[in-house]
Design brief:
Number of helices: 7
Helix content: 25-40%
Radius of gyration: 27 Å
Bound molecules: copper (II) ion
Strand order of the largest sheet: 12-14-13-15-16
Shape: elongated
Largest sheet: 5 strands, mixed
Number of strands: 16
Strand content: 25-35%
CATH superfamily of the largest domain: Cupredoxins -  blue copper proteins
Structural class: alpha/beta
Order of helices and strands: HHEEEEEEEEEEEHHEEHEHEEH
Number of domains: 2
Length: 284
């Protein structure tokens, strides 16, 4: 009788031991699936359905690979243009702080990563248009950590109509920008206006409608029009459409100011500025 009980106890113990022996292996397995992040595995599934030919390969072959870096609180580049139908791979690096890269319309999101960290996401840009990408950490989006993903279809690429969707807001801004005053002026860029640099200061302001700090400077300048020095002309250039200008002055980020001479040669360049005095104290 006693032996019988003992063997049952032993059996029970054995099961407990086996159970204990098993338990370490289970978390290990879990850890492994954790290293492949949630977003990553979701993306893999998506990718698999898209490119089922790649049986052996883990990575989805992307048509475009874009390196994006993030810091407090901006992305570089902050405009990404792809073509409709392309499989886009975003290699996101955090250079400072804790961030991610998210675009809702394509259900694309990297992991939230700390600097120095890297994470990628792949998605198919299957609808044309303009979409905001942003950082979903804390208030970063509200703090301006946003950018624009432009998915162009062929027609758009050819006619340069990519901006049409923003037409309303642009018109509104432009009409405000055209307000003239006898003091200096703040108006839309046109090459013919550069000649004013002969007798004054001309500053180009690369403005993007989707950039909160640009909008804030734009608003401020319109409010401060009467304070403009007589010889100052600020010309608002659209960051998204003035591609040649951007190339000319090597502008890689919106909200950049460029002081130019009458021939359009760059005198100096700076990123940022919140009010008129940031320009008047800077021009030379
Ligand atoms: Cu962030």
């Amino acid at each position: 009788m006693n032996k019988y009980v003992l063997s049952i106890v032993m059996l029970g113990l054995g099961i407990v031991l086996v159970g204990a022996g098993c338990s370490p292996t289970q978390p290990e397995g879990q850890m492994e699936s954790n290293t492949g992040p949630n977003s990553g595995s979701a993306m893999m599934e998506e990718g698999d359905s898209v490119e089922s030919k790649d049986d052996g390969e883990m990575m989805v072959k992307a048509d475009v690979v874009v390196e994006v870096s993030g810091k407090n609180f901006s992305f570089l580049p902050n405009v990404i243009t792809v073509e409709k139908g392309q499989t886009v791979q975003i290699n996101f690096t955090s250079e400072q702080g804790y961030h991610d890269w998210v675009v809702d319309e394509f259900d694309a999101a990297t992991e939230q990563i700390n600097a120095p960290g890297k994470n990628s996401v792949t998605f198919v840009a299957d609808k044309a248009g303009e979409f905001e990408f942003y950082c979903s950490v804390g208030q970063h989006r509200q703090l301006g950590m946003v950018g624009k993903l432009v998915v162009a279809d062929d027609a758009m690429m050819e006619s340069g109509d990519v901006m049409e969707k923003d037409g309303d807001s642009m018109m509104e801004n432009d009409s405000k920008g055209e307000v003239m005053s006898k003091e200096g002026s703040y108006e839309s860029y046109d090459v013919s206006k550069l000649s004013r640099a002969e007798n004054g200061d001309v500053v180009l302001f690369f403005h993007a409608n989707w950039c909160p700090t640009c909008r804030s400077l734009d608003k401020k300048l319109n409010e401060e029009l009467s304070d403009f020095p007589a010889d100052l002309t600020v010309l608002k250039a659209d960051y998204d459409t003035e591609k040649e200008l951007r190339k000319k002055y090597a502008i890689t980020s919106q909200h950049t100011l460029v002081q130019v001479d009458k021939d359009g040669n760059m005198i100096q360049k700076k990123i940022g500025g919140n009010r008129l005095s940031d320009i008047t104290s800077w021009v030379k």
